[in-house]
Design goal:
The protein is built from 3 helices and 9 strands, in the order ααβββββββαββ. With 138 residues, it is an alpha+beta fold. The chain has one domain. The strands form 3 sheets. Strands 3-2-5-6 form a 4-stranded antiparallel sheet, with no helix packed on it. Strands 4-1-9 form a 3-stranded mixed sheet, with no helix packed on it. A two-stranded antiparallel sheet has the order 7-8.
């Protein structure tokens, strides 16, 4: 009889533990909605007139125009610098905005932190740049 009671008690605790584990798994599956559904980077395309202009993003060489590169999303949008011999440098501040999918994080607030760290909280509002370079004056 005592063994049966212990077995019943063990099953009750095991059932409660299983329910708690499943509830936790469900909550975790809702975390970081921006990261899960829209990723943490965007493809940025830069074209220029004239072509062959060097593109730097926050000082890192991304190639020469026309160029498409992957930019990790950040809370603070990066700066593009375009350089070509015989032309004036152009500086463009990229623009970002709140990723509306990340608003689902309201269901589980710690996921705001995850989306903030991974970049899923924001997205770049403009992913294509067509830049006319100005000739340098000496």
């Amino acid at each position: 009889m005592m063994a049966a009671n212990l077995f019943h008690l063990h099953n009750q605790k095991g059932g409660r533990m299983l329910k708690n584990t499943l509830a936790a798994a469900l909550l975790l599956s809702l975390t970081a909605c921006g990261t899960i559904f829209t990723g943490t980077s965007d493809n940025i395309t830069v074209a220029s007139n004239p072509p062959g202009t060097k593109v730097l993003m926050d000082g890192l060489d991304m190639g020469s125009t026309p160029v498409t590169f992957t930019a990790k999303r950040k809370i603070t949008a990066p700066t593009l610098m375009l350089r070509k011999e015989g032309y004036r440098d152009r500086t463009i501040q990229m623009q970002n905005e709140v990723n509306m999918v990340a608003l689902l994080d309201i269901l589980f607030w710690p996921s705001f932190i995850v989306d903030g760290v991974t970049g899923g909280l924001m997205k770049y509002s403009n992913t294509t740049y067509n830049i006319d370079m100005d000739k340098a004056t000496h």
